[in-house]
Amino acid sequence: xxxxxxxxxxxxxxxxxxxxxxxxxxxxxxxxxxxxxxxxxxxxxxxxxxxxxxxxxxxxxxxxxxxxxxxxxxxxxxxxxxxxxxxxxxxxxxxxxxxxxxxxxxxxxxxxxxxxxxxxxxxxxxxxxxxxxxxxxxxxxxxxxxxxxxxxxxxxxxxxxxxxxxxxxxxxxxxxxxxxxxxxxxxxxxxxxxxxxxxxxxxxxxxx
Length: 208
Known about the structure:
By secondary structure, the chain is of the alpha+beta class. It has 3 helices and 11 strands, in the order ββββββββαβββαα.
């Protein structure tokens, strides 16, 4: 069975180099196909044919939770009484503290709404009243196959923060939209999901 059979339908698209696409060449060659797999991700090395007719390989990283055809995760712009909540997170990849809106992987079997509510409760300690879908984005379409849903959530009741023991969260801040945007423009907020969600919500008239 081809390794492509494990993928959701939209990731199996072979493509056509004659139509200007990067075409996947199905082969049993060693070193092509699944080159790494763990409980979270699958790393693929596709043998491909470029529109120039050049033959080469291309890496794709697939999250396991995408295999059911759903989004990879969610990022949530939380709003309470007109202010946006952000949390300080220590990001291992960058080895530094970052100011971000809540986000996380969608666990297999979870709906998007369940994921939004779960991430907000874990990172902020709030329940959610209403949820608005802003858009879906591809975080790095040169490497990752992921699709992440961006949402605005109206916060409701404060409860105990239920952070996972594999996370490193710091202080929670409530910022006016004006201050949030100022932090984006001055480099205080660099997270792409936070920036995208903010400007989508602003463009849709959801921020006062």
